Amino acid sequence: MDQNNPVIIEMKNITKTYIVGLEEVHALRGISLTVRKNEYIAVMGPSGSGKSTLMNIIGCLDTPTTGIYRFNGIDVSDMDDNELAKIRNKEIGFVFQTFNLIPRSNALHNVELPLIYANVARHERRERAIQALVNVGLGDRINHKPNELSGGQRQRVAIARALINNPSIILADEPTGNLDSKTGEEIMQLFEELHKKGNTIILVTHEEYIAEHARRIIRIKDGLIEADEVVNNRKVYA
Amino acid sequence: MINQIKEGLFISLNAIFANKMRSFLTTLGIVIGVCSVVLMSTAIKGVDNSFQQGISSLGSDVLYIDKFAWFGNEEFWKMRNRPNITFEDYLRFKSLAKLPIAIAPEAITVRNVKFRDRTAESIFITGSTNEFLATTNFTFKSGRFFNEIESDGGRDVAVLGYDIAENLFPNLDPVGMTVKIGGHSYYVIGVLKKQGSTLLGSYNPDKQVYVPIKSLFRHFGLNWRSIIIVVRAPNSQLLEETKIEAEQIMRQIRRLKAYEPANFSINQQEGLTKIYEQTVGVIQIGGLLITGLSLFVGAIGIMNIMFVSVKERTREIGIRKAIGATRKVIMTQFLLEASIISLIGGLIGLFFAIVLSYVVNQFIPTSVQISAVILAIFISFFTGIISGLAPAYTAAKLDPVESLRYE
Fold first, then answer.
1. Among the four A35, A192, B17, B222, which has the fewest Cβ within 10 Å?
2. Which CATH architecture has domain A38-61+82-230?
3. Across the interface, do A85 and B319 touch by the CB < 8 Å criterion?
4. What ipTM does this complex have?
C-alpha cells in the first residue's frame, strides 16, 4: 500500500452508545482508524463486537455518539439525514450479505437506481448501467428480475450497483455469506479485480479465509480495535 | 426532481399491479365516494334546472294577488277569515291599475277530462280571460289561446297543456276536437308546447287545461270561491312599483284604514325562489356531506393500506435510503402511490357516475357537468395525497439501519 495515497476515511475516538430500555450499551468505545485510497481492508470480529455498528458509521448509515469522522476531509459526524443520503449516494457503494436488490425491478433498473437519485439523465443512466452490468459479466441478464438470477448473479448485480456512481469506497458486509464456496470465491475474485483497478474496499467478514484476500485486517472486540495487521500470505489466484 | 417523480410513478404502478386485488379493494372506497359525489351534484343540478325552467314559464315579473300568502309565517286560520277575492274585485282592480301590462283573474277547479274512451283524471282546470296569455310565456304547439270574444262570451273552448294533449290524443291533433271536462263539452282550440314543471305540482302548465273563466263559473258554479288576480309588471325592474300600486289599489277596494293590516296577500315567485333556495341549499349541503363521508371512508381505506405497504416494504425503503434516496424522495414515492390509487379510483368512479347519470336522467333531466368531472379528478387526487401523508411521512423517517435489518 502506498502511504502517499490520499486519506479517504479518518476516524478519531469514535464511540457509539445505544440506550436499550434503562441500560446504556457501549457498542463502540473509542475507535481511531485511517483508510487511504486503494486500500483493501477486512474487518473481523465476533458477533456483538461492534463491527456492524462500525460498518454503519463508516457507511454513513448512522452517526457516532462522540468522536470525529472525516470522509474525504469533510466532517460527517454531525450531518443530518439528507446530507448523509447524498454522501452514501455519491461516495459509498454497498454490497450486502443478502444482496438487497429491489425484488420487483430488473437488474438494469436496480443498477440504475443510485443514478436516478443522483439525478443523472435517462440516456446516460442507461448507458452506464448497462456498462456496469457488462463489467461484472451480466451483459446478457439486464432484463432479469432478482428472482430469475442465481445467488452469485444477484451479488454481481449488487456489485454493479455499488460501482455505478464511482464511489470512494466499496463497503461489503459479508458479501459471500449467502453463497456457496465456489461462487463466493468468484465474487472474491471480482473484488480483487476491482482493487487492482484502484478501488478502495472495506470488507466485513468472520471467515478467516475470506479476510485473507485483503491486504490489511482489522480485528474488533468489545467495541475496540484489538489488532490492525498487514496480511503477508495473501491468497493467490489461479 | 423529474427523475424522482418518474421513478416514483414507476414504483407506484409496479406496486399497484403487483397487488391487484388489494389495490382494487382499496380503490373501491374512492370509486364509491367519487361516484356518489358526482351523482349527487348531478342530481342537484337536475333539480335546479327543472326548477329554473318552471320559474321562467311562470315569469319573473308576475304578481299573484291571493287571499292566502304562499309563503311566510302567517297562520292559515287567520287568512281563512279574510274576505274572498271576487271577480268584481278583479274588474275594479283592472280599471284602477295603471302600471301592469296584463291583468287576469284565475279560478281553479279539479275535474276529469275525457276524449272518447280516454280519461285524464283530476286535472287542474284554470279559468281566466284572454289577457291571461300575456301574463305567461306560453308557446303553442298548435292552435291558439282563446280571444276576447270567446273570453267575454264565456264560450266552451279549451286550451290543453302538453301532457294532457299527449295523453288524450296520442296520435291526433286535438285542435278542432271536443273533450268533456267534468261532463261538459269543450271545443279544443289550442295545445301548449312543453313548458316544464315547477316544483309546485299545481303550477305545471303541461298538466293543466285553460278555459274562459265565465264558462268555468257557469258550468261549475265557482263564483263563491276566492280567485287569484294575476298581474304582470312591464318588466322586473318595475315589479316593486307595480306591487306597491297593487297593494294601494287593493286597500282602496277593501276600504282598509292605514293602520289596518292587509286582508289579502301579494305573492311573487321571489318567495318561491327563496323557499326553494333554502330547501335545495339544505339538500345540497346534506347530500354532499353524506356523499363526502363515503369519500372520507375511502380515504381512510387508502391510508390504511399505505401503512401496510410501508410496513411491508420497510426493507426496500432501507435499501433505497442506503443507496442515496433522501427523505423527500421516499415521501414523494409514497405520496405518488397513494394519489395514483386514489386517482384511478376517482376515474373509475367517474365512469360509473356518468353511466348512472343516464339512469338519473330518466327521472330528473340532467347530465354530468364538466365542472363536476374536473372537481372529481382533483378531489380524488388530493384525497390520495392527504391520505398518503401520514404513511409517507412514516416511511420517510425510517432509520436506514433498522429498516435494512427488517425481515
1. B17
2. 3-Layer(aba) Sandwich (3.40)
3. no
4. 0.93
